[in-house]
Amino acid sequence: MSTPSTPAITPPYPIGTPGMPWSAAERASWLQRQQIQRSYADEVVAPLKATLPEQAELFQYGVIDYGRLGLPSYPLYAVRSAEWSADRPTVLVTGGVHGYETSGVHGALQWVRDEFTRHAARVNLLVLPCISPWGYETINRWNPDAIDPNRQFRAGGPAAESTQALECVAANAPRVDLHVDLHETTDTDNSEFGPAKAARDGKTFDWHAIPDGFYLVADTERPVPEFQRALIEAVQRVTHIAEADEHGAIIGTPLQQFGVINYAKRELGLCGGMTGARFVTTTEVYPDSPTASPAQCNAAQMATITAGIEYLLRA
Known about the structure:
With 315 residues, the chain is α/β, with parallel strands linked by helices. Helix content is 34%, strand content 18%.
């Protein structure tokens, strides 16, 4: 069931002048409000190194350096199959494009720990578990420049998180057959991140009810509805699936089938549009549901990856 569709009154965002896009000073003011709330090194990198399967290879593919803003630098890590075969299909898993979407990161880490070995003999695997480490630490959708990395998956874009992930995939998996991009839709999309985006761009906040439950975002150019349906059926064994609102939509986008909407991923510069994979999907877990635990959220992410691989191998 979706949350109520009548929006509460949203107060003006505390930065900027309504109707006017932010200047550099207002972006700086926004950055000053952000605080480190958890540790990328302790919660992502350390467990990744401690529980790496024998069939996996951990490597650093880049560095996010925001020293010009007085912030620390972050090494970027990926996991790939230690034995890579041109005869096997290739699977890409990305998490933490939006650092605040916790199960996207921890679901990827848990899948590497628990499921990587079982699938490594059948497919080539490349996993980027946390593309936006500063966003992870500050529980943020944006990077420090107030840019959403998940609109910048284009060569030469302004978000280093996106461009370095693109370069990593191009260098290590030039052909991708399946891409699963792990995300969440949270209550803070309405209380913080949506209003902040509207203020930054000098626009009116476009409020949509946050759906209670899991859903998928397919690619308009290659929706493959049977593939999306198989994933929904797998996740349904783990947690509940979001229903459409009274307009037949989820977050303002028309429902295509139970639990599935479509976005034009390449046109929008989304992570899910970064490859030419035959099968691509973006998960949207709802961690704020009163009936879903963090463990269920991670399990939903893991179930999607595994079901995607199983579908790929049957196709």
